[in-house]
Write the structure tokens for this entry.
Amino acid sequence: MVPPPETGPTADAVTEAAGRPGLAGGTGAAGTTAPPDGAGAPPPVRPDAPAGAAGRRRPPGTERSPWRVFLRKPSTMVFLPLLGLFVLIAALGPLLVGDPSATGNAELLAPSAAHPLGTDHLGRDYLARVVNGGQISLLVGFTVAVLCMTIGLVVGGLAGYHGGWMDTLMVKLAEFFQVLPGIVLALVAAALLGANVFIIVAILSITMWPAVARIVRAEAMRISQLGYVESARAAGFRSARIIWSDVLPNALPPVLVATSMTVGRAILIESGLAYLGIGDPSHPSWGALLNSAQAYMRDGWWLAVAPGLCIFLVVLAVNMLGDALNDAYNPTVGRVK
Amino acid sequence: MKARLIHYGSLLLSSLILFIAVITVLFFLLELAPGDPIQTLVGDVPLSEAFRAQITAAYGLDKPVWERYVLYLGNVFTGNLGFSFGTNNEPVLDLILSRAGNTLALAVPAFLISTIGGIILGSIAARTRKRWLDGGISGGAVALFSVPNFWFGMLLIMVFSIWLGWFPTQGKSPYGQPGIGLEYLVLPVITMATSELAYKTRIMRSSMIESLGQDFVDTARSKGLSSSHVLWRHALPNALLPMVTVSGYSLGYILAGSVLVERVFGWPGMGLLFIDAINRQNNMVILGVVIVLTVVIILVNILTDVVYGLVDPRLRAQFSPQRTLPPEGRQDRQSDEVAA
């Protein structure tokens, strides 16, 4: 994805490009020919459009698609590869690093060439443990996010489009999960029902879907008032079809932002649970590694540093990407002039 | 006035229903749980049938589920949260209240620091013309928001307690002494405050930017008022509105986060009590802690709603029930996050 040679400050360009009132997210691409997710369709740039700083104000209809703006942001260029690296390590790393539960090395060895992250209190290679732990953390984070997005799209879409009792029911359900912070409910449920990965994923999804559903609902309510939905209704399409092909695609950008935040929060909550000892003991995640590292903060500081740093970097990456996506699609919150 | 009464009436009613719903869900979750509380209570030793029957009768575990549920619900509303399965059979409420002070000693300073700090930092970031300053504050906020706060606490211990030796590593006071030592308070409070501070800074920044872009700010400026007057007297009150909501919710998050922070610092508050209860399957204590937490959160939410109605001049002027009925008038963390 090589962008055209334009060097104007990206954020300002976006602010200018979509500086239309009342278009908070969702319709950032309305003026362009590119669909919201259409990275393949470059926006038409007029040949006489001046490049560089002079080209910051673009003629109507030639704004860059928000997706391209997102991809060209400096933070995206840093954090997308970083996240990709972590995913790659989680997917392939366990094949390369050896058995995470093999003992036999000296105990509490500081990081060295043979053991880049040292060894733990039982003489196990810590690199192998951290790499394997990442698998659980990332798996939980992304699975929960996908589940939350799916539930959120269905429930929020129905509630926002139909209104009425469906809406009331959804709002009440969301309120229920909002009263109790997710970690408390997750803690009780995981402690009671058992603590394998599936149960934790299920609990986190159940407690976190309202965050996405609320966004979908708000977007669906806004979009269902728009002209093209009304004309679809007038044309006699069934509401399921209207929701699927008109409402949801246009609600997608803010939903993606909310979903990316869900990834980060799910990873944080999962690591918190694991740190408290709620998790699968045979597959320790990063949080579980921190739990056992607590006792060795004096003699094995590296045990506490590596897993925490990994959690931090992954969560930072998804949050920064969510921010960048939000800025690209919803540039109304800009700097004060 | 009538609209206001209806509004608060329905708010109270829905809070009550919510409260009962939370108790109900938790009670039956505990019922469904596998495991044997009697065995947990006695420990890992063989249990005679006679002794089992005796304990079952003593704790009322032989009654049908529905009877115990109704009994429990009635007890909750009269302030009786049942008795701990633990050695002393203490009343759960007493147990919780004996720990609540320690948790509040952390939560209240953390709440104040994060709220005041968030307002100041967010306003500075929104108003400054120096890009590096805004970038530094905003970037720092995202970073701190992404740090697992229990790990942040571990780092603080390793740097400031183990390495530099400035603060104690664990506990709330020197061994055997009652009360709370001030030097014991520093690191846990910082740990608890950071992620909320980061969150509030983000919200405040975007809210202030929005506020500074409003017409009335331009009007005030064009009247020739000084820029600090415009900021403090015109833009700030308007920008603080979302902070009222966010602060209300943040108290619940701080209290919930105390589970982790208290574990890191070995701080004997409600959080540690909760974890101990979960590890020992002490169901009455688990339920009790969650109920106390729920009550606090619901009360704070009602308070937030009242404060919001008082401070928002638009609501004062034309009070319409639709505007503040939850959740339209309020935003949850996630939607604030997206708006940020």
